[in-house]
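INFO worker-7 received task bundle
INFO bundle size: 2
INFO processing item 0
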Amino acid sequence: MPIRYLFSIIFILIFFGNSSAQKTSERKVFQVSRITSEPEIDGIFNEDIWRNLPSAENFVMVEPGDGKSIPASHDTKVQIAYNDEAIFFAVRLLENEPNELVKQFTQRDNLQQSDFFSIDLNTYDDGENQTRFIVTAAGTQADAKMTGDREDYSYNVVWESAVSRDDDGWYLEIKIPYAALRFPEAKQQLWGVQFSRKITHLNETYVWNYIDKSVGQASQYTGLLTGIENIDPPVRLSFYPYLSSAVDYFDVDTQFNFSAGMDLKYGINESFTLDMTLVPDFGQTAYDEVELNLGPFEQIFGENRAFFTEGTELFTKGNLFYSRRIGNAPIGFNNAQDATLENERVLENPSRTDLLNALKISGRTQSGLGVGFFNAVTNSAEASILDTITGIQRKIKTEPLANYNILVLDQRFNKNSSISLVNTNVTRDGHFRDANVSAFLFDIFNKKNSYNFSGQATMSNVNFPQQNITGFASELEIERTKGNIRYGLEHEFANETYNINDLGISQINNFNNISAYTSYQIFEPQGIFNFYRIEVYGQHLRRYKPDIMVNTGMGGGFFAFTASRFAFGGNIDVNSKFRDFFETRTANRYITYKPSTFARGFVSSDYRNPFAYDIKAEYQHYFNSEYKEYELNIEPRFRFNDKFNMVYEFQIGLEKGRPSFVGKSSGEIIFGLRDLKSLENSLRANYNFSTKQGINLSFRNFWSTANFSEDKFSTLQQNGNLQAYNNDDYSEDRNPNANFNIWNLDLSYRWQFAPGSEAVLLYRNSIFNRDALSKLSYRESLDNLFAQPARHNLSLRVVYFVDYNQLKNLFQS
């Protein structure tokens, strides 16, 4: 496999290496003017500097149509200026129906349904890496790091903006300090730039530089910004000190906590930035959406810690970095119970390791080489074991001091392609396990942007004290990326020893899969449709060792939205029998599930209305079997006014007659027929006094029961089938049934009292219960839940942004 891929990569690089991206229309160029006096950022253009500067204008439609000029009633003009500290923008946005302007108050990075204006800056002009700055008509800021068409709104930098309005439209001033950007060290800067205006009540979006939606990616259609020369930016050094205090009450036990720490950002030069977190505090991160997990795989949670989400686009290359590994459960957490002797019990077993510090260095050279280095250190963890007779305690180490690091090299070329090298490493102190993963990636478009070739080859190494285990995985995909008709072919492979789970996440290995698709889509409105896409796809899944079929399936899907912003779609799949090698929890053993059919559908109404809704439904049926699955999701949303909105979500799932792993007995693998039902209620509400302060409510209650039929236990045969089992041997103390109920409530007040600075007052209430009473009703289960001790937590966290240059000027004055 590696040799075959090597030849493919060499062929692609030689054949397409000298190509460059083509545009279907002439690229716009705008020359920026240097200024000596800085405008006040108030949304009012009363400074002399704005009176004579040229404007970027003549916007054209990108949604829903293609290239239509913006009407005079909504004419949009942008003026640009710069000095040694920042780049400035003055934007005039006409609106002939000012009462129709949508200006919903929201907090940072939350656009909702407001009109907005965005600026995309590609300081390396490489057609791929951009920073997006957005301001809504209400004044809300949003910023994102973009890689191609992927947006990462966890990226946050400090910049200024202000909005004003009158009967003719709305007006916007923006100041983006160079400290918020990374750019080449060069006397003359050549930046890609794109301006975009969303007119919500018309459901139209206009851009400055034309975008051909039928070819390539939107990031390859920026205009060119010239004229920024000989800038001498100030030192890029900022501090984010914080103070945090909390009181926690649980089961008559009250604890008080006070902590202080700091994050730091330092611009090593114009291109590279160092981020550090010293004495990190993650006490106010959002709760995880925990569910009843009876499957063979760990539940995957999103990252809620800002340091691990901001500016990590380089480190996520190749999907080898699952940041929740850092500070997660100790590697020996489950070994504590196994280590107990007779008359001993586990007294304390930490479920998390403490993060001591972390840093990341990232940036891109003038030649397009992106470099990223990440490092984090976690503290050791110990479990306490008590001898119940002597009262003597002993400790066992469940996790040593551990170091995590990532190195990424990402070379952009031809303004549409890249090759990358990624290495991740975990080193643990002492005789534990270490791990190292290396990957080579390529993402290459041809000259006309009509075909994309992408792939990855990954080598994993897990090092035990007495043994090293090496694994390999690869991906190769070829896609047609131009025109109405598109298609693609993909191959995925991993051998049986592939393992990246020390710092990444890979739930399965030992596979050899191939998949393909073809689709038809439109790029301009047709009839009642603004857009629709029809797709047909198929897959063939195989085990690598032994080489046997796992599954073959095919299906089709449809997605559309109308001129009135009503969206709907769905898909239908048909699958052959499925050999599941993981549900058995035993190497090289599988259970065979019957052939099945699957259907999914959804509808979504116009979010511009005060009331809107999303409805999704799924159904899966396994032929000649009791096994069926149903799921329904209903999500109404209410916008009471420009300050108050609420989203409620109700989800119910039913799983009937699923052959599921129960346990092992006398060398036999025991399965049972399981009925699983789940019910989830969640509520998200926001009341915003302004774009700088608001109250947020987040609530979630998840209930699930798993009930195994008492007379339908089976043993797994070598051919993957089940045979009836004498369940008299299965006693009450091995009851596999489960009743799971969890309740989380967060109520917070957030106030951004200065640029980059905020105070958050948070109240939390959480309750959890799990038992084997699977036949209880939802109301009875709630009664049991509320009988459990509740955790109450009240915390206040204040973060203050300190710019080194402002601090220096203060001391000098």
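INFO item 0 finished
INFO processing item 1
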Amino acid sequence: MIHRLRLIFACFYLLAIHYQSIAQPKSIGQVVRGRVYDALTDQPLGGASVALNSPATLVVYTDSMGIFRLTDVPVGRYNLTVRYLGYDTQTTAEVLVESGREQVLDIGLQTGTRTLAETVVKGQRPDANLTSAQSITPEQILRYPATYLDPARLATAYAGVVNTNDQANNISIRGNTPNALIWRLEGVEIVNPNHLSNAGTLGDRPTAAGGGVNMLSAQLLGTTRFLTGAFAPTYGNTVGGVMDMSLRSGNDERHERIVQAGLIGLDIAAEGPMGVPGSGRSYLVNYRYSFTGLLGLLGVTFGGEDIRFQDLSMNLTLPTRGRGLVKIFAVMGNSGNVFTALPKDEQVSAKDLYNIRFRSQMGAGGVTYSRPLGQRTTWRTALVMSGNQNSRYQEFAQLPVGFPPNGIATQYDRNSNVRASLTSSLGVRMSGRTTLQAGAYLTRVLSDLTVQRIPSVTGPVLPPDVADGTVAGWLLEPYANLQWQPSPQLLVQAGLHYTYFSYNANSQQVEPRVSARLEVRPGRTFSLAYGLHSQVQQPGVYLAHLPATSASMVDNSGLGLTRAHHLVLGYTHQFNPSAYLKAEAYYQYLFGVPVALVNNNATAAFSTLNLLEATEFVERPLRLVNGGNGRNLGLELTYQQYLTKQLYWLLSGSVYDAQYRTLDGIWRESRFNGRYAANATVGREWTTDFTTNATAANAKARKRVQTWGVNARLTYAGGFLDRSIDVNASQGQTTTYYIGYGYTNRLADYARADLRLYWRKSNPRYNRMLALDIQNVTNAQNQAHSYFDAFQRKIVPQYQLGIIPVLSYRWEF
């Protein structure tokens, strides 16, 4: 009897323990995995230690293929540190572990000094730039305020970068024109990858390097490398900046989805393995349709305009035999805005009299292949094609009585750009201290431009065909870069880049590059970099012309390259893996800048350094020569603390001076000479756990994690310059006439505050985020420019964006 009682008691005890274990809440866990490899040769690094720190500490070692895996990692933010003998110890901050998606990391290590001031995360190979470089992650794009999910808008939070108009992402870097920036995708230069490239411009015409919304969604992007000066030899055809975007690979082990809806648009992404899970083959696809387009289908307009855009992007990752890797990628999209003339009783400005249609299409695609050749060499090659086309048509709905008879009644602009590039390179580790990277880009460039201005009556002020032509040629850019590390504290690089553009005989340049980094004490590093850089002219500069019958024939097809010397001195103080202070002083001297050949009061101040729009110059073309100069100098300070202990800071400030000189020898202020800029971005997170109750129907009680975030950004910058308007000349026209080409009127300082609030909830199998992004929260009125309104018969100031609330909902599963 006692034996039976003991047995029954033991059974009840075991059942109690069992039910207690069921009721005990389990933490939400996720997988963190990836690959560690040599950044130059792609060789896997087996035996590297990978550590996740804060809120938990987890350590694992890579296998012989460089693969690591951490399972059941609690949801939260971590610092990830990778160590391997003979390589830099690399710490990556702000690694976000979420319940809905695995965190998959590619970590390329470099041999070099004992510490690395700037860390690189998630799928980005470190480049050779020792100065003037920043890494922008998709997680930052989603967290920082006022980004529109766009790396270029986030870049304005860093020192030396100012947005020319907050309706678009045209950025001026260190006082340069936004046209000096180039966009690259998977290591190759592409055409402008932005929707609504006419956004925020003076003449409502497209720009070469900006637009309202980036065509590549943050759902698809890996780490973007943003460079502002003294570029390594691998970069060419720019004198101002590089936005180097990469695409992340899809998850090769499980299928995942992201759905996001907000004022930007409806965004849907899917990724997963192709074939056997874990084989390395994966797909990633994303589709987006604008929210304004959805409203347009319902007849809702913004400021009288029907604005729409959509895009589709994809990336396929396919390993091959011999540890080769093939990536096939593509992006395509279209955008447009339509304005319909208002009824007579509602007309208040000249724009209200017109029907205006703007259309834009863009596409890019290619294939990349990389493969190790032995233990010390890796071969990479890529074939990439990109193209875009922009068209704008403007006409009077009905010519008003008494409107200027000599004005322009119809305007038509069309431009298209195509780039087809083949590139190949070799990365060779010659010894433990010396590496060599060499390669070449061969690009077929084809640009067409048509600009027509048809007057309202006979006797045109301007010829109907202002510009009509084609720029076609081969752009050849071989390069080589040698890196040498004579000691653990010193790293030296030297190389060459050569630019040759076959469009004319004046477009070639040998460009030496050299840089060095010295670690005087652990975490305290000095750097010095010099480079000669060059860039081809915009198609509108080459093609602007007057007919041969005019008194002054204009033909600018023989213009050569614009060139620039860059010199950058930097100091970085790494306080800890999550915080650093960086200071850089720079000097840029530009030469070979196209300026007006005829030196008189009306044209003496013209320089292409002040241009922004694609057809800004062609309406009143001038004969140009490569006789101008420019000089930009400044000092930049940045303090960044990554998101650790639920708090992050990004403080940046810059003082600079941007001037240019024409044939009259006078130095003038550049259009983009704001003189100073300051940014403060700060964010705070609060995380709480709560537990669901176990019931008979749901016996698996688990923790849920909720995170609240508040992010704010303050921007204050000096105003740009505007041209003086000739009121008398503008009176009899439908367009604005200016007094000369100099920028002499300084606009008021720019000030803006942005706020982003979000709530994230993590469940065992998915996570959700609700966010409110209030841009220009104080509704500050920042002037963009002034123009002469032919309807109101007066000068009218044009302002940038006011307050815009952007509500979004994101679901990952």
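INFO item 1 finished
INFO post-check item 1: The chain has six helices and 45 strands.
INFO post-check item 1: The CA atoms of residues 549 and 646 lie 70 Å apart.
INFO worker-7 idle
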